[in-house]
Design goal:
Blueprint (H helix, E strand, L loop, with lengths): L6 H17 L9 E6 L9 H8 L2 H4 L2 E5 L8 H6 L5 E4 L1 H10 L3 E6 L6 E6 L14 E4 L5 H9 L5 E4 L5 H4 L5 E5 L3 H7 L7 E5 L11 E5 H6 L1 H20 L1 H15 L5 H15 L13 H13 L9 H4 L8
Parallel strand pairs: 1-2, 1-3, 6-7, 6-8
Antiparallel strand pairs: 3-10, 4-10, 5-8, 5-9
Helix pairs in contact: 2-10, 2-11, 5-13, 10-11, 11-12
């Protein structure tokens, strides 16, 4: 027996389903917790996972309304965290250990980068063939990211003339310094793109010789962790999910990165950002390590902390159980 179409009933079902999708959404805007997050540098593929988590609704899925602040040398992560101007930020492990050793205390909620991409790049024309040849040379260092090279120089008993390094390598390319700081996934590729051949350079990678300092981790103040550990864990998990999505969908992630790059008017290119995303994956999920994204091993932590302490760059080592949210000592 056929049933006649009744527009009154049809309209009722439309109202029902509309109300269902509006009010039964798992993370409606009214219920999202507002969070601020600061990547430590300008928009680029180094932070692709966070931008992807934002744009793909992953943070919302975890009940978070995340505002991603624009980082850079004028907005150092430690200052922004201690000044309560951001809830979360990325920092190199060495810088975070130093900050926690003097206060206020920070908590590592997810160690993203497992292997160091930091390096010193020197010109062979400056007579630099090995580490000893850096003695007395002009070396540019980023003021906010100098602990690892400083520890390296002290370990090698090398004294250099330190020149503050800006966010470009123009000083190095024009001969203003003999050596410069570089990240393997960023500045090193920029030097090649500027027309310098690899055989013209001497490179000092910090990830070997028991000097590997894991870099980007996500941090918050200890008081934030103690006040709302559930929110902190959700932010960490969503960020890791964002990275996993970015690595599984690299072209889509690059589209998202370029959106942020263009909004910030950063002078870069898609090929450079593609190089960066590929290299950053290699140090976030190294093939020779079984460590999963987000894990800070006690061995890696103590390698960094002891080296900083030995070189006189910190006076005390913060206990691993207090520093890392994923340790067995964190409740």
């Amino acid at each position: 027996m056929s049933r006649r179409f009744n527009p009154q009933y049809s309209f009722g079902w439309i109202l029902f389903f509309t109300a269902f999708f509006i009010f039964a959404s798992p993370a409606s805007a009214a219920h999202l917790q507002k969070v601020t997050f600061l990547p430590q540098w300008f928009p680029q593929a180094q932070f692709a996972g966070y931008y992807t988590a934002k744009e793909k609704g992953i943070y919302e899925k975890y009940g978070l309304d995340v505002t991603i602040l624009r980082g850079g040398p004028e907005m150092p992560s430690d200052t922004m965290l201690s000044g309560r101007k951001t809830m979360f930020a990325t920092m190199f492990l060495a810088e975070a250990v130093q900050q926690s050793s003097k206060g206020p205390r920070l908590v590592n909620i997810a160690q993203i980068v497992q292997r160091s991409g930091f390096m010193i790049v020197a010109k062979k024309s400056s007579g630099i063939q090995n580490a000893g040849d850096l003695q007395g040379k002009r070396v540019s260092l980023w003021p906010n990211f100098s602990l690892q090279p400083l520890a390296f120089f002290r370990k090698q008993n090398i004294k250099v003339k330190i020149i503050p390094q800006a966010y470009t390598l123009n000083l190095f390319l024009r001969g203003g310094v003999d050596a410069a700081s570089a990240m393997w996934y960023n500045e090193y590729h920029s030097i090649m793109s500027a027309g310098v051949n690899e055989d013209e350079l001497t490179t000092f990678f910090f990830n070997g010789n028991d000097f590997n300092f894991p870099e980007d981790g996500i941090y918050c103040l200890e008081e934030t962790w103690k006040k709302n550990p559930d929110l902190v864990r959700r932010f960490a998990r969503a960020s890791i999910e964002g990275w996993n999505y970015a690595f599984a969908h690299p072209e889509e992630a690059l589209n998202i990165v370029m959106k942020y790059v263009e909004e910030a008017r950063i002078n870069t290119s898609r090929p450079h950002q593609k190089w960066m995303l590929g290299r950053i994956k290699e140090i976030i999920v190294p093939a020779d390590r079984g460590t999963s994204i987000g894990t800070l091993s006690e061995k890696d932590y103590m390698t960094v902390a002891r080296e900083l302490r030995l070189r006189g760059l910190i006076s005390r080592i913060p206990p691993y159980e207090e520093f890392y949210a994923g340790s067995s000592g964190k409740k």
